[in-house]
């Protein structure tokens, strides 16, 4: 676990353990009180060496079957459980790097694990945003955000963040497939209302018509006509519609051939690069090799 059992962080740790033990139905007040008591006892005995196994064993030894149930429900996160390898042992995650990327793609098929990991990441981001140096500019970027906008504590964090980040010299960028994704939840609507800038790639006509009909972008008829003209020509450029406090317009993004491959998610591009990486080349060498194969200049 990434959280120390200090008084000001006790709620965070208890929240994580509750998420581990009760992913669908919340623990009752008596169980939460018992969990707090056992965590405090284990911390006094083990200190920073405390792991989920220790909490589990302490709970199982309680005379109250309701407290024992928490210990049983924690099993997946113990060293013998399917998720134990992620939570038992020395913490090796370093959030001190100025640019940190947290990839959660592999968790999409494991909702319980994803829920707990997201709670930990929220805690870490909150620490950096709200308790870090206010003189330092900070930004959190959330990609594929539509899948998180209805996820309980995650949604609350995103919504509260959009209301508060500016006060702490911070900012947030939320990336979704469509503007309409934002309006499918209260959190998304709060994001839209508190966003100073909006950037849109090409949208389908039906999506633009819905945006206009529902009043989701404050644009004139001419503005919507411009938005409908935004398009991408694969391999050449992407147009981006922007609406900011300084004005509205369209920009065109062009990148060099190396960067196109570096950031490409096209299956063939990824496959061709990985073939060379599998032969021992690093990423840059693999991209250059693919470009040579295709007769493309750098």
TrEMBL record:
Domain TraG P-loop: 55-292
InterPro entries (alphabetical): F-pilin_assembly_TraC (IPR053155), P-loop_NTPase (IPR027417), P-loop_TraG (IPR043964)
KW Nucleotide-binding (keyword) present: yes
Keywords (A to Z) from UniProt: ATP-binding, Nucleotide-binding
Highest taxon of source: Bacteria
Record-linked Pfam families: P-loop_TraG (PF19044)
Gene Ontology MF annotations: ATP binding
Cross-referenced PANTHER family: CONJUGATIVE TRANSFER: ASSEMBLY (PTHR38467:SF1), PTHR38467
Designated name of the protein: ATP-binding protein
Organism the protein comes from: Pseudomonas shahriarae
Lineage: Bacteria, Pseudomonadati, Pseudomonadota, Gammaproteobacteria, Pseudomonadales
């Amino acid at each position: 676990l990434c959280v120390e059992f200090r008084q000001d962080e006790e709620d965070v740790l208890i929240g994580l353990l509750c998420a581990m033990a009760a992913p669908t139905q919340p623990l009752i007040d008596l169980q939460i009180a018992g969990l707090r008591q056992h965590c405090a006892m284990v911390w006094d005995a083990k200190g920073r060496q405390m792991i989920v196994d220790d909490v589990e064993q302490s709970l199982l030894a309680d005379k109250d079957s309701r407290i024992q149930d928490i210990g049983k429900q924690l099993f997946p996160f113990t060293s013998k459980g399917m998720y134990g390898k992620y939570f038992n042992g020395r913490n090796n995650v370093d959030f001190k790097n100025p640019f940190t990327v947290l990839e959660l793609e592999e968790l999409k098929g494991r909702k319980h694990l994803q829920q707990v990991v997201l709670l930990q990441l929220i805690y870490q981001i909150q620490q950096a945003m709200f308790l870090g140096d206010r003189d330092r500019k900070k930004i959190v970027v959330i990609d594929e955000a539509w899948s998180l906008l209805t996820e309980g504590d995650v949604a609350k964090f995103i919504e509260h963040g959009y209301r508060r980040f500016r006060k702490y010299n911070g900012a947030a960028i939320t990336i979704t497939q469509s503007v309409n994704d934002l309006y499918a939840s209260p959190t998304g609507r709060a994001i839209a209302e508190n966003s100073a800038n909006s950037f849109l790639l090409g949208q389908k006509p039906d999506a633009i018509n819905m945006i206009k009909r529902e009043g989701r972008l404050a644009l004139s008829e001419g503005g919507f006509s411009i938005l409908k003209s935004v398009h991408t020509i694969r391999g050449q450029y992407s147009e981006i519609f922007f609406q900011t406090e300084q004005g509205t317009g369209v920009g065109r993004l062009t990148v060099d051939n190396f960067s196109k491959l570096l950031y490409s998610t096209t299956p063939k591009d990824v496959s061709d690069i990985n073939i060379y990486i599998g032969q021992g080349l690093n990423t840059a060498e693999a991209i250059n090799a693919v470009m040579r194969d295709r007769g493309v200049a750098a």
